[in-house]
Amino acid sequence: MTFEEIIGILAGVLTTVAVLPQIIKAIKTREVEDVSPYMFIILCCGVGLWTVYGILKEDWPIIVTNGISFVLNSIMLYIVIGNKD
Amino acid sequence: MTFEEIIGILAGVLTTVAVLPQIIKAIKTREVEDVSPYMFIILCCGVGLWTVYGILKEDWPIIVTNGISFVLNSIMLYIVIGNKD
């Protein structure tokens, strides 16, 4: 494995799991008033399109990391919208 | 421009600008209690490493999109940490 590949994998793992602390905080506190739903709507569209891009290019690392991101950001979006009046 | 390229550019733009509504909301309301600082710490590390990856591979689209993401997420992290007691 090259140095570039190690950096790329580490970068992909970090950007994919970044939303997890926000999901855990939201579930624990049940408070999401300060969280922008638009951020997660745009993120879901963005990583969803990255997944489509990966499918079109048959690039598995892009499909897997963005597919997981899509699921995690959708969970957070569901929590944010579910807690709005 | 191919269909794949259009999808890729659209995906890159969306994931790059997604944090903007959260920054605007935080500046307007001055409330960030429900926002996880860890999400933005991990995001900054992740997109920072993607920028390094782009530099190593001499891939300008990766450098530009993740460089902008790094700046925007750093601004949000600064707002979140600056508002903590």
Q: How would you describe this structure to a colleague?
A:
The structure is a homodimer of 85-residue chains. Chain A is globular and about 45 Å long. In chain A, helix 1 (3-17) runs parallel beside helix 4 (60-82) and helix 2 runs parallel beside helix 4 (60-82). Chain A is mainly α. The first copy, chain A, has helices spanning 3-17, 20-29, 37-57, 60-82. The mean pLDDT of chain A is 94. Chain A has one domain (3-82): Up-down Bundle (Monooxygenase), CATH 1.20.1280. Chain A binds chain B through residues 3-4, 7-8, 10-22, 24-26, 29, 31-36, 38-40, 42-43, 45-47, 49-50, 52-53, 56-57, and chain B through 3-4, 7-8, 10-22, 24-26, 29, 31-36, 38-40, 42-43, 45-47, 49-50, 52-53, 56-57. Chains A, B: The chain crosses the membrane at residues 6-24, 36-56, 62-81. Chains A, B: One of its GO terms (cellular component) is membrane. Chains A, B: It comes from Gelidibacter sediminis. Chains A, B: GO terms for molecular function: sugar transmembrane transporter activity. Chains A, B: This is MtN3 and saliva related transmembrane protein.
Radius of gyration of chain A: 15 Å
Approximately how much beta-strand content do the residues of chain A carry?
Answer: under 5%
Overall pLDDT of chain A, averaged?
Answer: 94
Question: How is the CATH topology of chain A named?
Answer: Monooxygenase
> What would you call the shape of chain A?
globular
Number of strands of chain A: 0
Q: Class by helix and strand content of chain A?
A: mainly alpha
Low-pLDDT ranges of chain A: none
Number of helices of chain A: 4
- Main sheet makeup of chain A: none
